[in-house]
Amino acid sequence: MTYWKPTTCMRCAVGCGQQQRGVDEGYGVDKVRGDYDHPGTRGLSCERGIRETADPAGEWLTEPLVRRGDTLRPTSWETALGLVATELIQAIAEDPDSVAVLGSGQQTNEAAYALGKLARGGIGTKHFDANTTLCMSSAVAAYYDAFGSDAPPPTYDDVPEAKTHVVWGANPAAAHPVLYRWILDSAGDDDSRLVVVDPVESETAVDADQFVQLEPGTDLELARAVLAHVVDTDGVDRAFVDDHTDGFDELVASLPDVDAAASTAGVDTDTVETLAAAFADPTLLYWGMGVNQSANGTDAARMLVNLCLATGNVGPGSGPFSLTGQANSMGARVVASKDTWPGHRPFTEKEHREAVAETWGVPLGRLPESSGPGPVGIVDQMNRGNVDICWTVATNPVAGMPDASNVTRSLDDVFLVAQDAFRSETVEHADVVLPAATWGETEGTTMNMERRVSRVTAVSDVVDTVRQDIDIIAAVGNRVDDALFPEPTLDPEAVFDEIRDLTAGTRADCSGITYDRLDAELAVRWPAPDTSTQGGYRYYDDGDWSFPTDSGNAQFRTATFDGLPEPTDAAYPLLLTTGRRAEAYNTGVRTRKEGGGVPTARIHPETAGQYIDLLDRGRTVVESRRARVTVDLAPDDSIPPGAIWMDVHNPAVNELTLPVVDTESKEPNYKQCAVRLSSPDTSTTVTRSGLPRTGTYGDD
Questions:
Q1: Which of 30, 280, 455, 558 is packed most tightly, with the most Cβ within 10 A?
Q2: Which residues of the chain fall below pLDDT 50?
């Protein structure tokens, strides 16, 4: 008979505590339920997280595969690892940067750390990144600029204390349902309210006391308008600004005329006034991918942080709270050596590089001097012939990256190693496939969006031909540098102890968190410099403020709005935006049996009426400058006129999206690109000039 065992849901970054039980015979998870003892979620766990943990619908990978011609064929682990190692060793000898490694916010801390150790310390490549850059890096850059450190200042404890909840460019009703329950509970009090800012009337917007529907992509300009109104109406918390911040005068000088900025954002000045008034009470400002995934995502996130600073909404019950998407995006940033060394150690500072090299037992000169160009930049390097090998771990770039057709072509031109638990679009293009264990089969830890570290545990063995992520990484690593890891099977606790040592004394100190402590307390927030304390609201201690910046003060930053990178025009008159559905997550490999089906494109009924001649039994084609995708058109008055909303989880959708990135964060501009509709039976209508041929609506 099997027993209930505590674990953490790995679906999203809320980090719900769960109890799970394995099947009595064979392999697999039998039942999953919320854990009432968990200090963060107290028994709550969304139905989708439970279902995806206990009974994922994806096609499991059960043995290593190698490509023979056009077909992936079963092989032994020894053969698969030998092929990978041979290719890696040859590439490293010629140029370590010819190897690219792409990790994931779905890995445990231990696996993410081991992958970064191998990529940076074993291979020595600058071309190492993770899919967390595709969703969170703009928020991270904004936090660093304002506070000198990554991660939100607030915690879940602040949600019931806030009077106003402003959700900006996010839909937690679909993406983070447990957190959203807390938000609704707090906003439902007589003296509280929920304000939602979004181009689309989402499930969250339907519940709002005030819904602000702005023009897609104008979040930065609306935030600047609100700030300007706050300044003009003496809504600034002068005591906080004067005593604890720098750069306010420069910010004020850069702000626009309220009427002009409101017009750009597609709202009236009364709306700006009402939105500004929301910040008069203790306010939690949440934002998500709608803000981050933009060519000006860092500036937009900065301006939201500025709003909190200017109105004194930094402290318990208030503050800027970015909503993380993937389960362990936070952990990947803390431990994976992606943009910083473990513990958020600065990547280029010599003393930190020396500490990392010493811990890893590798030459200092092997560590790359640059943290790399980001995932889109790595694809660019493939296109230029500068990357020969790409190894993906628990990520699906063929479906998840912008301009996906170009990504596919790029991966087909390199030696591709895909490590995953499920058969994804990326796996189909791999030269070698390494099957990994998944939830319920994996031991380690994770970090949720409020900095809580908790255990991920196994209640099922795996088949003999499937291995843990960290063991696969170590097996490859030992063939590259036999001193990098102990021989697998690795002890996750020993790997975590190495993480603890490297984070000791840093801004993300996890040295006081042990497996024994997690077994006793279930979840502990960093910074935790000893075994009896843990972090609360960051930068604040009993009324005293301390920010890890050069001056010790929080920093205001200026920004201007330069428009969309690909605005609509006569050739492409509609604007495509993307979002999450409640039923799926990430690229949907756990929730669909095969393929993604024909995507649904939601469009305002008035706009749909203009394209009636291009419909064939409800089906049409959405076409961008990069691709054309057949869709089922669904009239929906929650979508603004002139826009199309499509499901980010469908593998076809990112064939349309734009590979332009925010120059500071390297995060792609997923949320706005110009498209048009064309007849399903029409061959490609793109011409050299970009103007349409026959069968396409929008001709001049």
A1: 455
A2: 683-700
